[in-house]
Amino acid sequence: MIMRKILLSLIFFFFLNNILFCQESRTIDSLQLLLQNSTSDSLKIKIYIAIGNEYAQNNQTNLAIETYKKALKLSEENAYYIKYQLLQANIENEKDNVFRQYFIIIVAIIVITLLIFIIYRSYKYTRKTNKYLNQQNDIIASEKEKSDKLLLNILPKDIAEELKESGFSIVKHYDLVSVLFADFAGFSKIVEEISFELLVAELDMYFKKFDKVVEKYHLEKIKTIGDAYMCAGGLPITNPNNPILTVLAGLHIQRIIESKNVYKILNNISLWELRVGIHTGPVIAGVVGEKKFAYDIWGDTVNIASRMESAGDISKVNISGTTFDLIKDYFDCTYRGKIPVKSKGEIDMYYVEKIKSEYSIGGEGILPNDTFLKFLGII
Q: How far apart are CA 25 and CA 54, in angstroms?
């Protein structure tokens, strides 16, 4: 009875084991079939591991180890391939990076070269333009200087500046102005005796010397009319000492004529002789004209000064009583009496003989000394 049970148990175990073995064999076969149809290395590795596990469970250790080795080998080959692919990718990437770097460098060089070229062209153009503009500015400045100088030769400095800024000059009234007229006596006879070239040259020489005298004594040249020269003191800048300065200018002008006549007498040349007249009083001054500016003065003072010149003698400075009252403390004068003047009645007139000794160099009465000039503001 016991032997029967043992035999039945062995038979059952044998059949069960065969069933299980068959089932395991079917599992391995299925995995083997799946392995053959698989194209992915990662999937093959997983299948090898699964087959190895099946062999291990079936106590087929050697088969399990072989299967595991295949998985490991495939894994290593795959890792090498991946590393190779990665290395290739790195190399390609490095090549791309180097290409990009070279490309960027080449583009940068081209851009920098273009910028340098553009900057250089711009610099040359700017330099050329600036040079041209500087030349034009120099020309403009030179022409402006010429026009300003010409304008100053025509108009007083203050009047010229006023005219440039506003386009017009305000007519002004002055209470105390000394007007000087100088006129060459016998000019018509001189014209007949010498050539017109020599006549104009000598007249120009005298007037230039008169201009220097006018500038020295802070007077203002008004105009020339033929052989007549007109200037005034006390305008456009007022100066209370203008009667004294104008008389000094009159004496200086007569000395110029005298010095030239000494040479002419020695060389038997026709003499140029001058009359000078001065009167002091109120005047109106301003600029007249539009195309040819002229600074002029008007008033009864101008007319009387002209009468002082025509009523005087050659080589003399003839002044009115009004002017005498303002300069008598500084000059020795000779009273001429009341002289009839056309349309003005009788006017007191004086000849200015010389500067008082205390105000002249060496007391000679010819040239003013430094003390006198400092008092007048000349030095």
A: 9
Identity of residue 331: F
Q: 299-312 b/e with 16+ CB inside 10 Å = b? A: bebbbbbbbbbebb
Point out which residues pair with 274 in neighbouring strands: 184
State which H helix or E strand residue 346 sits in.
strand 345-355
Among the listed residues 184, 319, 349, the one whose alpha carbon sits nearest the alpha carbon of residue 251? 319
pLDDT digits (tens, 9 = 90+) for 228-268: 999 999 998 899 999 999 999 999 999 999 998 888 888 77
Cis bond upstream, residue 243 (ω within 30): no
Element (H, E) at 1: none
Domains of the chain, with CATH numbers?
1-154 (no CATH), 170-376 (3.30.70.1230)
Scanning the structure block, which residue is given the tokens 């070279």? 102
Query: HSE (CB half, 13 Å, CA atoms) of 189?
Result: 7
What is the reported pTM? 0.63
For residues 77 and 86, the answer to whether their CB atoms sit within 8 Å is no
Instruction: Give DSSP secondary structure letters for 176-210.
Output: EEEEEEEEEETHHHHHHHS-HHHHHHHHHHHHHHH
Q: Rounded distance, CA 235 to CA 72, Å?
A: 122
Burial 320-356 (b: 16+ CB within 10 A, else e): bebbbebbeebbebeebeebebeeeeebbbbbbeebe
